[in-house]
Amino acid sequence: MSEAHSPGGCAGKEEELKKALEYSQSIVETVREPLLVLDGELRVVSANRSFYQTFHVHPQETEAHFIYDLGNRQWDIPRLRKLLEEIIPENTVIEGFEVDHVFPVIGRKTMLLNARRIEGKGNRSPLILLAMEDITLRKQAEETLKKAHAELEKRVQERTAELAALNEELRKEIEARKQAERMLELKANELARSNADLEQFAYSVSHDLREPLHVVAGFLRLLAKRCQGKIDSKGQEYIDHAIKSVQRMEQMIDDILSYSRISTRGKEFELTDCNHVLDQVLEDLKLAIEESGVSITREPLPTVMADAGQLARVFQNLLGNAIKFRSDRPLKIRVGAERLGDHWRFFVQDNGIGMCSKDCERIFFLFERLHDKSKYPGTGIGLAICKRIIERHGGRIWAESEPGQGSTFYFTIPAHAEKPAG
């Protein structure tokens, strides 16, 4: 009879198992993590209290059972079984073996297994100590961290892509700006050359036209003198008309030359008291003021950075036009200025004949005239000169008017360089 079937053999094995239980139980109960003690056949010799509490099982359904038969066979993993079977004969160990399983009662858990051989006292057979650590929360945290890291990586990549796109857009904008600056520089150079050419052309025209005009004017005066009393009134009228046409042409040439030289022949800007400028202009217009009987109301004017001579020309032109284009009622002119943010807004207001609002822009074009030149003489260049002067000073000029209601001319000059108080 074999030992497995002899009464003595069975009793000896039971005694050995009992002693092993007593020996191992003292060890496993001291550990807070779930522990199993297995024999060489992978039967459960004992389990600690933590094992029963963790998996909600009882000793009678655990002890003396094969480990791979426990519960819903959660430990019946071929690779784990092979590793456990090698521990006693080969004295190997298991470290960090993960088991992710849906356990009875407690649900899905991730357990980390570590196992090693333990020697029995005396002639007792060696056993296997299997320790289990619940790392479910750690794995969940790792998974959460992994997802967060992936999300962060995704956002970083998206942000990097956005920044790359922004950088590319910025690079294009910078390149476009540089290109615009180069074009602006080219245009500025072209404008400078154009202004120089315009001035040279105007000078040449004025020089080439003045001489024959002087000759024509001289011969007309000589003709008028010699024919005095010898021709009828109609002939004298023709001569007078020709002389006036020559004089008007000479004035137009002077105005064209002045227009072309506004930017190139203007003086450096300096602190200019506009009250003094207006005083000089009113003195120059004294005769016209007296003849027209105009009443001029003036308000205090500021001190600005300007070309005093050019600024005087603006006032003279605007006041001269107000006097020229007066109506039958007593003429009143008001001159003043008001601070608006970073600039001064000047105004010259009259109660003259006025004009249609649609004409308030075209009057600043060269040679633009709204009225019969026989009634209102002039070259049609004065306001164009004013516009160019004000633009040179960094401002703008415009008019507001209605027929029969008079006109108000406005122009602005920057106030950032205003003379400091005191």
Shape: rod-shaped
Main sheet, how many strands, which sense, barrel? 5 strands, antiparallel
User: Could you state the CATH homologous superfamily of the domain at 266-414?
Assistant: Histidine kinase-like ATPase, C-terminal domain
Strand residue percentage: 15-25%
Helix content: 40-55%
**Spatial strand sequence of the major β-sheet:** 2-1-5-4-3
CATH class of the domain at 266-414: Alpha Beta
- Taking all Cα atoms into account, the compactness measure Rg is 55 Å
Total helices: the number is: 9
Average residue-wise pLDDT: 82
What distance lies between the first and last C-alpha atoms, to the nearest angstrom? 132 Å
Class inferred from helices and paired strands: alpha+beta
Under CATH, the topology of the domain at 266-414 can be stated as Heat Shock Protein 90
The low-pLDDT segments are: 1-8, 417-422
- Element-level helix/strand string: HEEHHEEEHHEHHEEHEEHEE
Q: What is the second-level CATH architecture of the domain at 266-414? A: 2-Layer Sandwich
Domain Histidine kinase: 204-417
EC number: 2.7.13.3
GO molecular function, one term: phosphorelay sensor kinase activity
Catalytic activity: ATP + protein L-histidine = ADP + protein N-phospho-L-histidine
Describe the 3D structure.
This protein is an alpha+beta fold and 422 residues long. Among the domains are: 7-134, Beta-Lactamase (2-Layer Sandwich); 266-414, Histidine kinase-like ATPase, C-terminal domain (Heat Shock Protein 90), CATH 3.30.565.10. It has helices at residues 7-28, 49-55, 78-90, 136-226, 233-260, 274-284, 286-292, 308-324, 382-392, and strands at residues 35-38, 44-47, 94-103, 107-118, 127-134, 270-273, 295-298, 303-306, 332-340, 343-350, 397-401, 407-414. The strands form three sheets. The chain has a five-stranded antiparallel sheet with strand order 2-1-5-4-3, with helices on both faces. A five-stranded mixed sheet has the order 7-9-10-12-11. It has a two-stranded antiparallel sheet with strand order 6-8. α4 runs antiparallel to α5 (233-260) and α6 crosses α8 (308-324). The longest helix is centred in the middle third of the chain and has 91 residues, at 136-226. The model is unreliable at 1-8 and 417-422 (pLDDT under 50).
